[in-house]
Amino acid sequence: MFAQLTEADRQVLDHLQREIPLTQRPFRDIAATLNMTEESLLHRVRALSGPPPAPIRQISAIFDSKALGYESCLVAAKIDPARLHEAAELINPHPGVSHNYQREHAYNLWFTLAVPPDSQLGLERTVALLRHLTGAEQMRLMPSVKLYKIGVKFDLGVGSPAAPATGLPHRQVRASYVVTDTDKCIIRVLQQHLPIARHPFDDLAEEAGVTVAELLAAATRYHDAGVMRRFSAVLRHREIGVSANAMGVWVVPPDQRDALGELAAQSPAVSHCYQRPTYPDWPYSIFTMVHGRTRVDCEAALASISLASGVKEYSSLYSVEEYKKVRIKYFEDDIASWESSHRMSEAAVP
């Protein structure tokens, strides 16, 4: 079900998904750039937020898991189709699972998993436990070997620039950031949905035990260091008419991977582009997430990349069902609680 969007709605959504200024009155500042009043913008954003079919899922900081000391990974699972929904229901309660999709492939369940620095299980042991719980035939860890692009920005037909590619050099800077206890308090509130109000950061600052100026200064520092990728709205893509998405995976000789990754990152249809490991039953090393209004759009984007690169061997793994899509809550106790509650099951894992 698509949201019924006016041209003004599209202008607002386009701006919000790119960046929200880290100022005391960000909606006033956005309104000024859109030639609107602050009150009219607030009214419109409230109307565009909420449960589906409202297109705004959340407005918050988007952090880099690895920069915060978390281990994170894409995981591919091969599960008996008759037990797929049951398996998803066993995986989803883990608080570090942010995305979980059924895709059209023998590896039919794909989820992202993150665990904190103090995890008792760690990433690999957690995946082994999830495989044990679900009875999956196979689970493959697909960590990022190299990042070529991460920048989800949907084309709303208003002529704004595409999201910039964020690549490996920036990620190397992130790895050196030291997170203090004060940072953890601030990060906990910045990952919450931003109140749609004249002074939206006031309540968040109070909850974190800092002033608004201190909160905004910290957020700016996180952004400049690459710890926070951006502060923006996350949109429900189907509600804005982007109903198809495919994970385009490519078989590429090692000496051609960088060339393909860098070329694919330039495509506006590609939101994520990574190099990931191969396995005997998984020859694909370059992953490109493409979005379109239809499957035809996705196939056209992948065909264009293939033509430009000369790489002919690729597959399109379309998402069939979305089992989970949330933002991870960093520096909470929920993952420790999950691990504690599964201690007996973990003991049975070979």
Beta strand %: 15-25%
Low-confidence stretches: 167-174
Number of strands: 11
pLDDT averaged residue by residue: 92
Number of helices: 13
Terminal residue distance: 45 Å
- What is the CA-atom radius of gyration, in angstroms? 21 Å
What spatial order of strands do you see in the largest sheet?
A: 5-2-4-3-11-8-10-9-6
Major sheet size, sense and barrel closure: 9 strands, antiparallel
Task: Output the structural class.
Answer: alpha+beta
- What is the element string, with H for helices and E for strands? HHHEEHEEHEEHHHHEEHEEHEHH
> Helicity, in percent?
25-40%
Explain what you see.
With 350 residues, the chain is an alpha+beta fold. Helices cover 36% and strands 23% of the residues. The chain is built from 13 helices and eleven strands. The strands form two sheets. A nine-stranded antiparallel β-sheet has the order 5-2-4-3-11-8-10-9-6. Strands 1-7 form a two-stranded antiparallel sheet. Strand 3 and strand 4 form a beta hairpin. Helix 2 crosses helix 3 and helix 7 packs antiparallel against helix 8. The chain is globular, with a radius of gyration of 21 Å. The termini are far apart.
Short description:
By secondary structure, the protein is α+β, with helices and mostly antiparallel strands. It contains 13 helices and eleven strands. It has helices spanning 7-18, 26-33, 38-48, 84-91, 122-134, 168-174, 181-190, 201-208, 212-225, 257-264, 295-309, 334-341, 343-347; strands at residues 56-63, 71-78, 97-103, 109-115, 138-142, 146-150, 228-235, 244-250, 270-275, 286-292, 314-325.
